[in-house]
TrEMBL record, chain A:
Stretches assigned to the ABC transmembrane type-1 domain: 75-264
Bilayer topology annotation: Peripheral membrane protein; Multi-pass membrane protein
Lineage: Bacteria, Pseudomonadati, Pseudomonadota, Alphaproteobacteria, Rhodobacterales
CDD domains from the UniProt entry: ABC_NikE_OppD_transporters, TM_PBP2
Organism, scientific name: Poseidonocella sedimentorum
GO biological process: peptide transport; transmembrane transport
Family per record: Belongs to the ABC transporter superfamily. Belongs to the binding-protein-dependent transport system permease family.
Protein name from the UniProt record: Peptide/nickel transport system permease protein
Keywords: ATP-binding, Cell membrane, Membrane, Nucleotide-binding, Transmembrane, Transmembrane helix, Transport
Transmembrane segments: 12-34, 77-103, 188-209, 246-264
Top-level lineage group: Bacteria
Example GO molecular function: ATP binding
GO cellular component terms, semicolon-separated: plasma membrane
Pfam families noted in UniProt: ABC_tran, BPD_transp_1, oligo_HPY, OppC_N
InterPro entries to which the protein is assigned, alphabetical: AAA+_ATPase, ABC_Ni/Peptide_Import, ABC_transporter-like_ATP-bd, ABC_transporter-like_CS, MetI-like, MetI-like_sf, Oligopep_ABC_C, OppC_N
Automatic annotation (TrEMBL), chain B:
CDD domains with a match to the protein in the record: ABC_NikE_OppD_transporters
Membrane topology: Peripheral membrane protein
Source species of the chain: Poseidonocella sedimentorum
Family: Belongs to the ABC transporter superfamily.
Main localization (coarse): membrane
NCBIfam families found in the cross-reference section: oligo_HPY (TIGR01727)
UniProtKB keywords: ATP-binding, Nucleotide-binding, Transport
This protein's name: Peptide/nickel transport system ATP-binding protein
Upper taxonomic lineage: Bacteria, Pseudomonadati, Pseudomonadota, Alphaproteobacteria, Rhodobacterales
Pfam families, per the entry: ABC_tran (PF00005), oligo_HPY (PF08352)
Amino acid sequence: MTAFFRLLARNRLALAGGIVLSLVVLLALVTPLLPLADPDVTDTSNRFRPALSDGALLGTDHLGRDLLSRLLWGTRLSLAVGIAAALIAATIGAAIGIIAGFYGGRIDNVIMRGVDMLMAFPYILLALAIVAALGPGLLNALIAVAAVNVPFFARNIRGITVGIANTEFVQAARLAGLSNPRIILSEILPNVVPVIVIAMSTTIGWMILETAGLSFLGLGSQPPQADLGSMLGEARSALITHPHTSVVPGLMILVIVMAINLLGDGVRDALDPRLKSGALSRPMATTRVDRQSIPDHGEKSGDSLLNVRALETQFHVRGRVYRAVGGVDLHVEPGECLGIIGESGSGKSVTALSIMGLVASPPGVITGGAAYLDGEDLIGAPYRRLRDMRGRRVAYIFQDPLSTLHPLYRVGDQLIEAIRAHRPISRTEGRVRAIELLDAVRIPNPEQRISDYPHEMSGGMRQRVGIAMALANDPDIIIADEPTTALDVTVQAQVLSILDDLRRSRGLAIVFITHDFGVVAQLCDRVAVMYAGRIVEEGPMRAILSAPRHPYTARLMACVPELGGGKRRLEAIPGLPPVVDALPEGCAFADRCDRTRPDCRAGDIPLAPLAAQSVRCLHPVGTEQEHAS
Amino acid sequence: MTTALRITDLSKTFPVGRSLFGRPKASVKAVHPLSLTVAQGETLGIVGESGCGKSTLARMLVGLLEPTTGRIEIEGAALDTADPAVFGRRIQYVFQDPISSLNPRKTIRQIMDAPLRHLHHMPARDREARILEIFDSVNLRAEFLSRYPHEFSGGQAQRIGIARALAAEARILILDEPVSALDVSVQAQVLNLLADLRAQFGLTYLFISHDLAVVEAVSDRIAVLYFGAVVEIGPAEEVFSAPKHPYTELLAQSAPQVGRPLAAPEAKGTELPDPLKPPPGCAFANRCTRASARCRTETPRLTPLGTASQAACFHPLNV
């Protein structure tokens, strides 16, 4: 709750709206206590006195009634009616929406078609019809305004409820024996309330206006009772001769509605989880770079295609620094396949995205290091240069092809667009090339499948399109981020073999990011194991598979069950990886390791060569004898 | 050995393209009539690729979906109504995504309270003690009870999901991909915990997963599902090492494995058959290297092969 108010207060406009609105509400609340003239006593000898005259601060109206008093009493009434209408509309609308959304099927159909019919009338006509049927009067105007707004809430809440009613936690509640009414009250409602509050905060202002409108037409509050709308209505005839009688209530309506709308927008932004997580902050075209020094090529500079040196990427979120990548050195030779293996949060994806400046900024910042592609540093390269290289020199394949392909364009058009982004060729030539590419990734009937939409393809086919798109401009390196994790095993095997063939036939270098040792073992020449943002072991695939040196590598491999082993107990690593905003001193794995000694926690541990690989460990596996002697 | 769960000819057909009042235009058979028995204390693994009907089967078994045909018997007593509250005391479900199966606006205590209160009508005092007891058995600390789901890692949240299922005191648990959302190092922790709980409380598991190695490591018997039907069932140590059905063999060869060269195990069309137009005969025939004319006209039934295995194939392997 305090977090909500802090977020709200950060929005200056919303804060201003909130302050103005609370002042107005406070004034309305204390109105009966103020020494005001009776708002309804007429004094025709003193009619149309100007503002700031004796005994009438804001002047008097056409019947000589004190305008200040009428304004405050009128505001009180208008606010009360507006808020009451919003509450009634929200309650009834939300109840209808939740019931329709939760039960679905025929109940949903009947209710929502009824709501649709209500919405088919222009709202003011509907309100007029309701008031005409019930007779004029403030209470009837309130009923009309509430009724007119019910469909808005019902539709909004129904949409949200349908989503929640199918979630796993609702199913879990059913299995825990909860009845439907109980599920609605204890599972659905708490998750819907923020949406109701958001909808209400943005519509109260609207409802005050509608009530004022009805009163203006003489259908709301009846004389002599004052509300803002009726004050305006009565002042209409004297608009030219005595404008202050219209300006006073008009300004008050403006102030109230503006304040409510500003506050309402602020409430919405503060409550909406999508906006909270930073969807409103547009990421920049490349990751922000803020590094003190630029590391040189190092000794490996010679023939490496890609040479990443001491890369550091951090996420700065609300005063906390998450060190996602904490100094990674990598090199990829032409035609080589490098596997990066690690668990979630190990920094493997962020490393890959940093190379081409694809980490979202804010909150991501590259705080150190360099990435040399053929000797040219990509970190900090201008956007135009990076954009020219993206896809042409370094291409990416992502995990979920359904979310990387645009759902509304045919796959062929997306492929052609990718080709034409870097080459001045015609669409017909592009199409020929696209068909070649689809053929290269073994999509059957490429001439026909080229005009499919992404949803018409299976997951495996979509991922092949993803690979084809990465190949579109003959890149030197493809960075594949868990490209087969979402696929079934039989499809995964095919996609992997396509990647393997392509790299051999085209001399492609591949950086293959995964959590699966089996996949790495089949595809890669070299592997780097990451833990808590750093490489803990790196070396030739075979060497690491046969003799892992870092305890984490060894135990991670032991965790993975292998087919053919029969029923058995699995090796587990106790504990959890450290969070990257509070990394321990020394080795990040020390807390979960059974070989930890005091010096493990003493300070930074370098990646040191050992046998065929490099290991970031002071007491690597397989060195016991040396220690003993 | 007593039977914990027996299902007979259980099937589910979904209507497709229903108009406002009219009859559905077509139907999709998600699960073909299927019969299985699971012995008390046994773990039956169910493997299959996406779209094979394994989740539909699981949801029917806990009453979240009403079966189109067939019956479910738990410890000899039939369950006829699809009411999760009736099922809940006898058979429980552990969800794939541990975080989204916990209501984000409830504390863990409120979540744990629900099955005790609504399924067992336990008084408040006993509930607290029971929750602590269950938390102890899944190695969770009591202080977690007053926190909210988003404060937990995937592994911890999955333990809470398991604890909730245990609280219902059902003796059969359906584990629907319980570790596929977890990291490898945490996955092993949860699998070992499940094995301990099974021994401690004499539970019976149905373990559904797409990960063949995981299923093999935890199961006594394994059923392989393809296109809504069981194509092979047998002892865990045999199913993948000596597959009888060509589809099982394809699965076993596709699983990435250290030390095996990469080779596409299948060159032919890889798409599943169109569920709206299921092919006559064996659903796997189009992908099968051993298919004959008979496979395309006649549907093979599960037949015993060897000592304990059954496969639905006219031309089985390894016999």
